[in-house]
Amino acid sequence: MKILKFILIPLVGSVLVGRAWAQEADPAPVTLELTLAKVEQLALKGNPHIHAARARARAADKEVLPALFPADPSFMIDKTGESGDPLNFSSGMEMWMVEENLGFPGKGIVKADALGAEAKRLEAEAGATDREILLQARQAFWEFYFRSKVDGILQDAEKNWKHLSQVLQSKELSGQWLSLKTIKMQMESARAVNDLITNTQALRVSQLNLTHLFSLPHATSYALAGDEELPALALGEEEFVHRALHSNPQLESARREVEAKEAEGKLALLDHLPDFNLRLSGTRDPNGGFSDYGFRFGLSVPIFFPAKQTQRADAAGERTEAARYDLKGKQDEVIHMTEQAYVGAQSAWRLLQLYEQGGLLKQTERAWQATQLAYRNEEIQLPEFVDNYNTYLQTVTAYYQARTDYGKALAELEYQAGDLGGDDHEKP
């Protein structure tokens, strides 16, 4: 019995520790209410790609200041011990030397400029990463918005179809309906159930997409805080193109790439120039009373510059030219993508305006309420009621699809124009 007690105590303790660890490792699920602004805030705060890009930019910026300093000097101290007693340094020969490679005057400044240009390029890439993640977050939000709205519609539809199924069974049993009509209604009911299941799975995927973008615990769930206000498409195509050419994040990165390559080219040209060396030294012989102190100023000249330094400078020039061509190609691409995004946003906005101006959602809801009342008063038959019900579902779904399409198209257009994100967003 003593042995059993000895074994059980550690087992119980390990179970308790395991439970405590599991509670710490798996936090309680939370539900976040989402708006478009909240989605952007969570993406900027939690997305690991944004933090990685920012860290690279900060690391590059920290390389600039050390480039302004000369190379670390080298020290050498030599002290000789006595013959027969090598560990006795009291009367041996002493020699010391300090050597510093000063480089060419101004070369450190040019190197710092090159590193500074590279840091600015990485900063621009970090900004581009911000905007790319914001675009993904907006697209994911509108997918979640649409599927959440449809889920609410289909949940009500399932309840109504259950009621209709009971009515169908009673009419079939009483002989009021032919079998083909019953089969058609049963097919409609099965389709409604399948739509609900499919949309529920899609809604789950949308939630996982948001969790991935925010880098939040897997069990996090989301709910809509309300209907999102959508701004009008007030600007014309030329204005969006003009903004894109000045503010598109990919263009900004390409411009910084050109500046970085130009700075590297200037640094490569300095390889043709000599480096200056300064050496201070001293020698003292305590036994003979001999001492000697002095300095040497040297010059190292690149003698292989036609095959080495010149080729490096030419290669840097080619890289600069390639970066300029990349910038021109990116400008053409941005113009095309902005024009294409504008056409898509304009089309989606036009359709949404037609829905909004006609009060489609309110009219549909009133018409559906009137249909329900007419059916209860036996003014319409079940087939007509079912047809009206399907029309109601399709119309409401189309309305929310139109809002989603415009929201996604507007996000794409603002991304291309460089209006998505920007200085008004807090950097992580």
Defining key terms:
428 residues; alpha+beta; 4-stranded antiparallel sheet; two-stranded parallel ribbon; elongated; disordered C terminus
Question: What strand line-up does the widest sheet have?
Answer: 2-3-5-6
Strand proportion, as a percent range, falls in 5-15%
Count every beta strand, where a strand is a DSSP E run of 2 or more residues.
6
Low-confidence stretches: 1-24, 423-428
Q: Based on the structure, what is the oligomeric state of the protein chains? A: single chain
Separation of the first and last Cα atoms: 60 Å
Overall, the morphology is: elongated
Mean pLDDT: 80
Biggest β-sheet strands, sense, barrel = 4 strands, antiparallel
Structural class, please? alpha+beta
Count of runs of 4 or more consecutive helical residues? 11
Rg, nearest Å: 37 Å
**H/E element sequence:** HEHHHEEHHEHHEEHHH
Task: State the helicity in percent bands.
Answer: 55-70%
How would you explain this protein's 3D organization?
The protein has 428 residues and is of the alpha+beta class. Helices cover 68% and strands 11% of the residues. A four-stranded antiparallel sheet has the order 2-3-5-6, with no helix packed on it. A hairpin with a 4-residue loop joins strand 5 (275-285) and strand 6. The protein is elongated and about 130 Å long. The two termini are 60 Å apart.
